[in-house]
From TrEMBL:
A GO term, aspect molecular function: ATP binding
Biological process annotations from GO: 'de novo' IMP biosynthetic process; purine nucleobase biosynthetic process
Keywords attached to this entry: ATP-binding, Ligase, Magnesium, Manganese, Metal-binding, Nucleotide-binding, Purine biosynthesis
Presence of keyword ATP-binding: yes
PANTHER family (alphabetical): PHOSPHORIBOSYLAMINE--GLYCINE LIGASE, PHOSPHORIBOSYLAMINE--GLYCINE LIGASE, CHLOROPLASTIC
Family under the similarity heading: Belongs to the GARS family.
Name assigned to this protein: Phosphoribosylamine--glycine ligase
Cofactor(s) the protein needs: Mn(2+); Mg(2+)
Domain (ATP-grasp) ranges: 110-317
Catalysis performed (reactions): 5-phospho-beta-D-ribosylamine + glycine + ATP = N(1)-(5-phospho-beta-D-ribosyl)glycinamide + ADP + phosphate + H(+)
Length: 424
């Protein structure tokens, strides 16, 4: 029986740990540091552990006889947690630090895509304000400007005109708005179409697609307002037709795994391609993530029927070609409940009420929450993701929002139109 440690504290980690804890092969599931949601799950224990201290993580794994570590967030992956734990003989699921550059550096990812002829937007890479502004003179608008490094999903600006673009360049390169992450920027063409998330589990050579999904990045109804880490998601995504699925599997995912292997850094872990699908049904890569997306993980995990720990171990051992994956046929839809003010300044420490009034067929995943004296408090910008399943997407949406209506902390904010593109 497996004893599993999940690294992270958000909604993605709650969903991964919850699914792992349901496995027929798992005896114990630990989450470091976890949140109020993981703490209240019957078969999950939170662990006080500095996840940036890889020596401490190894020691915990040795003491607790951990047979699998699953890393949720991108930072420990980019910092080399998988390399460190693997060297200590602890099976750790995720990419090496070298392979994690696909997310850790947008410049690395764009150069990789170009080198291996994987479809993506035209771009330029800059470290100097003057050169970036010169490049902007000959571009059409809107245009996309990205901080090169990790910026917690917030280092992307869509500039509508030249003056906004120049101000953004100055913010990132001269004013140091994103610190080290923004000391290099990417300026790329604005792609038109519909976004989709294509996530696979990979073993360096083979892959198994996860269920397709689509998230809503913009804060407000109608997909407008500032970009966030995601305000809700649903699975499957009707925009990913059978033809697009085949095209992406071959021209994006397999081409990426082949390219990474050829470059001497084979990719094992969750590989997430953020796609833009145009009106002709052609998909281009917007970005790579080297871990599961949040909030896509939550609806996808509610549909996964296979043992997640077994899939991760098969990937680590390079035998995904002998493994398959079972899914619930129903739609899953998740609504993110955020703190008013997110993605900018927001309060913490509000008591959340109504969690016990939610129907048992709805699953509430916690993101920014903490337990204090028996109460669940808000502890982040995105607080909860409320997920429901149904054979009809509109019904799944209705169930999720009925649950959302029961939960309050006085300053909650959420979109009311999650799934609108697929439902219309």
């Amino acid at each position: 029986m497996n004893r599993v440690l999940v690294i992270g504290s958000g909604g993605r980690e709650h969903a991964l740990a919850w699914r792992i804890s349901q496995s027929t092969n798992v005896e114990s599931t630990f989450v470091a540091p976890g949140n109020a949601g993981t703490e209240s799950e019957p078969n999950i224990s939170n662990v006080v552990l500095d996840v940036n201290d890889f020596v401490a993580v190894v020691k915990f794994c040795q003491i607790e006889d951990i047979s699998l570590v699953v890393v949720g967030p991108e930072q420990p992956l980019v910092d080399g947690m998988v390399d460190h734990l693997s060297a200590a003989g602890i099976p750790c699921f995720g990419p090496s630090a070298q392979a994690a550059q696909l997310e850790g550096s947008k410049a690395f990812a764009k150069a990789f895509l170009q080198r291996h002829q994987i479809p993506t937007a035209a771009y330029g890479e800059f470290t100097e304000v003057e050169a970036a502004n010169e490049y902007l003179q000959n571009q059409s608008f809107p245009i996309v400007i990205k901080a090169d490094g990790l910026a917690a999903g917030k280092g992307v600006v869509i500039a509508e005109d030249l003056s906004e673009a120049e101000a953004t360049v100055a913010d990132m390169l001269a004013m140091n708005k994103f610190g080290d992450a923004g000391s290099r920027i990417i300026i790329e063409e604005f792609l038109v179409g519909e976004e989709a998330s294509y996530i696979v589990i990979a073993d360096g050579k083979n892959f198994i697609p996860m269920a397709t999904s689509q998230d809503h990045k913009a804060r407000d109804n109608g997909d407008i307002g500032p970009n966030t880490g995601g305000m809700g998601a649903y699975s499957p995504a009707p925009v990913v037709t059978a033809e697009i699925d085949r095209q992406v599997a071959k021209d994006v995912i397999q081409a990426t795994l082949d390219g990474m292997a050829k470059d001497g850094m084979p990719f094992t872990g969750f590989l997430y391609a953020g796609l833009m699908i145009d009106q002709q049904g052609q998909a281009k890569v917007l970005e790579f993530n080297v871990r599961f997306g949040d909030p896509e993980t939550q609806p996808i995990m509610t549909r996964l029927k296979s043992n997640l720990d077994q899939l991760c171990i098969a990937a680590i051992e390079g035998r995904l070609d002998q493994t398959n994956c079972e899914w619930d046929d129903r739609f899953a839809l998740g609504v993110v409940m955020a703190e008013r003010g997110y993605p900018f300044a927001y309060d913490k420490g509000h008591v959340i009420s109504g969690l016990n009034e939610v129907s048992p067929e709805v699953k509430v995943f916690h993101a920014g929450t903490a337990l204090q004296s028996g109460s669940v408090l808000t502890n982040g910008g995105r607080v909860l993701c409320v997920c429901a399943l149904d054979s009809d997407l509109a019904q799944a949406k209705s169930k999720a929002y009925q649950a959302v209506d029961k939960i309050t902390w006085g300053s909650e904010y959420y979109r009311t139109d999650i799934g609108f593109k697929a439902i219309k």
